[in-house]
Specification:
Elements: H1 12-22, E1 43-46, E2 56-66, E3 74-80, E4 82-87, E5 90-95, E6 104-110, E7 118-128, E8 143-148, E9 163-166, E10 170-173, E11 189-193, E12 211-212, E13 214-218, E14 231-232, E15 235-236, E16 241-243, E17 252-254, E18 258-263, E19 273-275, E20 280-301, E21 306-312, E22 336-341, E23 348-351, E24 356-366, E25 372-381, E26 391-394, H2 398-412, H3 430-444, H4 448-459, H5 480-496, H6 503-506, H7 511-518, H8 556-575, H9 579-600, E27 601-602, E28 607-608, E29 616-618, H10 619-627, H11 636-647, E30 657-659, H12 666-675, H13 687-694, H14 718-726, E31 729-731, E32 739-741, E33 750-757, E34 760-769, E35 772-779, E36 785-789, E37 792-796, E38 799-806
Parallel strand pairs: 6-16, 11-22, 29-30, 32-36
Antiparallel strand pairs: 1-13, 2-7, 2-9, 3-6, 3-8, 4-5, 4-7, 9-12, 10-11, 14-15, 17-25, 18-20, 19-25, 20-23, 20-24, 20-25, 21-22, 21-24, 26-33, 27-28, 31-32, 33-34, 34-35, 35-38, 36-37
């Protein structure tokens, strides 16, 4: 948001520091309020007479008197759906991070840097998307809550002493299917009518229709022994509050992009700019790379002028095709748009309530009877505050661009939750999140967002024992295979993170998934026909992502997915000391492997068929068969070479069809290459990513061309692979207690990398000189491990390690 300058409210020196000061998590305070069993004194409040579940925007405010400003002034804040908080006209922050009603987040802020002796104004915009809400937004009804952390802050507690007005000049706009012809589940468009908007709502100059707020329930953090919250006002309060475990999202100015096309505007290009009366103009910006940001537009005069911002990942040609993303000639923009109608005032600042995703942004201006002055158009980046700690440099210069693009993709898809894509859906799907969490561990050294996701999936479990495929989500969706991947995510956490405490809570909840699958096994051990969406991969001959099955089921791929989860579950149960259950899981996994081998291995072709009918083959089934040793060890290299050849477009084997892996499933193909000892072939599999770069993409796409999404989280896995397969840095034991370094540089002649470890950074440097390779490895204090090169092993000690190997 653009802060309004209010004379007399805030010293300029404090205002300049406000955003920096408030971006830090506040202190952990001793609170007199019992956060587990007692309600807070504050009440949830809303606007009297306003619809509680319809699209609407509200402003809340209260004046407080502060004596002394040196001490912290800590408040806990939440809203349904969302809020942006201000103190004395300066933006404090936003929230709450998305969750469900049983785990409704509240944010914590220290307001002291913005307070001054005497009267201060606390204000918040709160909005409810209503039936236009994005799929990830869960909701009960419009409400706002602020709770002081101690009696010092009790004046700020929300109750009927707060004022509220409904903002009649701001609204939400349904998405036009013509602008977004593919599946869209993210935020709606926004509209501001400047002539109706209360521009002074954050100050005493406001002439809005302010009313005393209405209480709709008590503030209740935590869970209750009887399972029900306290309730006041209109009845039971549905929100069960929990603290937000994440740091504040970034909020920093970023480039709006360079102007690449101007139509209908005379004079120079740039801002400030004046658009004449009774005219139309269009200005197209290209950032050169995707961003997730809040646009900030400042306009003067031009009463009645309509300004529209349109956001897109790429431009399209006359056929609606994207083609090369760098091309702008004879191309147009289609996408989400927001509208602002000027009221003729001076320096009117406008920004969206929800952030936007774009590479291309177009500003269209249609003036009325007077010219309009566009003072500025800027943007503020927002996203999870990952700090890039890993590096990867190699003798092949294309690796730098692949690494940079993967990092950008990971950043664009990490906010208060992970998300599959920032433009189209913004949903936290398990299939994407498993890959995102691994990148978070090895590139950023940060597991907080991953723990949030693991909790969310545990909270999503149905009475059948399965998780939902994505969470939070207002529309439940079940993909049973993603429940299996959730178990895999827990196994990843067990390997990479030394803090195994949460596993004791998570692991027992996986048993419902295992039991659900056991109920759907056939007598021969393969899985039968199952309900829900049994997604395997986006590829040809997989019907809406579901792998081929016979009339009575028998999918080898789905059975192997279950087998993998049993193996992972066995390790996790053993971690908890449940040896008998772990042994049972391993026996059941081995039985599935034997069943798949007996019914689906086709000896003449040296491949696993997708079903016992032997009518179809796939890269997916064979990669999983290698990874799980269902394919005999002596045949694994041959199978993977065959898989790579067919996946690259070679003719199908013998009779039958062959399905290649998508960008997503190539993550598991890479694991199979590693298992088969063919890691040196990995760099040769990056052709699809190089092709995306040739097409001008700045983030990795959802699928090969034509693709809906140009920015999709699951395609960023090369960053993980470069560190763990090529540089070869990986856990040598659970909790990353030791390290295994097994490089596979392929055709590279030089490579250096850095990976964050809980004890510090692991740094490696490999060089090929004449007939010898030199390896320099530095481990942080207390970390030891093993170095492997071409079948030879050497011990690694903390500190510097140096090896020289002749040959190759």
């Amino acid at each position: 948001m653009v802060p309004l300058k209010i004379p007399g409210f805030l010293p300029a020196s404090v205002a300049a520091l406000a955003l920096t000061a408030l971006a830090l998590p506040c202190r952990s305070a001793e609170t007199p309020y019992d956060l587990v069993h007692a309600k807070w004194p504050a009440q949830w409040i809303t606007c009297p007479g306003a619809p509680l579940r319809s699209p609407a925007v509200f402003h809340f405010r209260k004046r407080i008197d502060v004596r002394g400003t040196s001490d912290p002034y800590v408040v806990h804040v939440s809203a349904d759906n969302r809020f942006v908080l201000f103190v004395n006209g300066v933006r404090v922050g936003e929230g709450p991070a998305r969750g469900d009603l049983d785990h409704w987040r509240y944010a914590t802020f220290d307001l002291a840097p913005l307070l001054m002796p005497g009267e201060n104004l606390i204000a918040a915009t709160v909005w409810n998307y209503g039936w236009l809400a994005p799929m990830a937004q869960m909701s009960d009804q419009t409400g706002f809550l602020m709770q002081g952390d101690s009696p010092r802050e009790s004046d700020a507690d929300t109750d009927t002493s707060w004022e509220v007005e409904e903002e009649m000049g701001q609204s939400f706009v349904p998405v036009n299917p013509a602008d977004l012809p593919n599946y869209y589940a993210a935020d709606p468009g926004e509209s501001i009518d400047g002539s109706r908007y209360d521009w002074d709502w954050k100050s005493d100059r406001s002439s809005g229709d302010w009313k005393a707020a209405t209480a709709v329930g008590a503030g209740e953090p935590g869970r209750y022994p009887n399972g029900y919250p306290y309730g006041t006002g209109s009845g039971l309060n549905r929100w069960l509050l929990v603290p937000d475990p994440l740091p504040p999202m970034e909020f920093a100015e970023t480039s709006i992009g360079r102007i690449v096309r101007v139509e209908g505007a005379s004079g120079g290009v740039g801002f400030p700019a004046t658009i004449a009366a009774h005219s139309r103009a269009s200005i197209l910006f290209d950032r050169g790379a995707m961003t997730t940001a809040y646009p900030e537009l400042v306009v003067s005069r031009g009463k009645g002028t309509v300004l529209r911002l349109t956001y897109a990942e790429a431009l399209v040609d006359a056929r609606g095709q994207k083609g090369n993303r760098n091309e702008t000639a004879n191309r147009s923009i289609l996408g989400l748009n927001d509208t602002f109608v000027a009221d003729g005032g001076t320096a009117r600042p406008w920004t969206t309530l929800g952030w936007r995703a774009w590479r291309y942004l177009q500003l269209e201006v249609h003036t009325g009877g007077e010219p309009v002055e566009i003072d500025s158009l800027k943007a503020r980046f927002t996203g999870y505050p990952f700090e890039e700690r890993a590096t990867f440099d190699a003798s092949d210069p294309s690796m730098e661009k692949i690494w940079e693009t993967g990092t950008r993709t990971a950043r664009m898809n990490a906010h208060e939750t992970y998300m599959d894509c920032p433009y189209w859906e913004r949903l936290q799907y398990i299939g994407d999140t498993r890959i995102q969490a691994l990148i978070s561990y090895v590139e950023f050294g940060d597991d907080r967002l991953a723990r949030q996701a693991l909790d969310a999936y545990a909270w999503s479990r149905t009475t059948e024992g399965l998780t939902e495929s994505r969470y939070p989500s207002a529309l439940p969706q079940i993909i049973p295979t993603f429940s299996l991947l959730w178990i895999g995510m827990l196994h990843d956490y067990w390997l990479y993170r030394p803090d195994a405490g949460p596993l004791a809570e998570w692991i027992p909840q996986t048993r419902g998934v295992i039991d659900w699958y056991a109920c759907h096994q056939r007598a021969d051990g393969l899985l039968g026909v199952m309900p829900w969406w049994n997604y395997g991969d986006w590829t040809k001959d997989f019907d809406f992502g579901v792998p081929p099955q016979d009339v009575d089921g028998g999918s080898a791929l789905l059975s192997l997915d279950y087998m993998a989860a049993l193996r992972d579950g066995a390790d996790l149960e053993a971690h908890l000391g449940n040896g008998a259950r772990a042994d049972d899981y391993r026996r059941r996994a081995d039985a599935i492997g034997s069943a798949v081998r007996a019914s689906c291995w086709v000896e003449p072709l040296g491949l696993l068929a997708d079903t016992p009918a032997h009518a179809h083959y796939s890269e997916q089934t064979n990669a999983m068969g290698v990874l799980l040793d269902v394919v005999p060890k002596e045949r694994q290299r041959a199978v993977m070479r065959t898989v790579l050849a067919h996946g690259a477009g070679a003719a199908p084997p013998g009779k039958g069809e062959f399905s290649p892996s998508s960008l997503y499933f190539r993550f598991y193909v890479a694991r199979a290459l590693d298992h088969a000892g063919l890691d040196d072939l990995y760099l040769d599999t990056l052709g699809p990513w190089k092709q995306m770069l040739e097409l001008g993409l700045s983030t990795w796409a959802e699928t090969a061309e034509p693709t809906r999404s140009d920015d999709h989280a699951w395609s960023a896995h090369p960053n993980y692979d470069l560190l763990t397969l090529v540089a070869g840095i990986r856990p040598g034991s659970p909790g990353f207690g030791t390290v295994l370094i097994a490089p596979h540089p392929g055709a590279l002649t030089a490579l250096s990398a850095r990976m964050p470890h809980p004890a510090g950074d692991i740094v490696v440097r490999y060089r090929k000189m004449a007939d010898a390779w030199t390896f320099d490895i530095a481990l942080p204090h207390g970390l030891t491990g093993t170095f492997q090169w071409e079948g030879k092993s050497s011990a690694l000690a903390e500190g510097a390690n140096h090896f020289v190997y002749r040959g190759r």
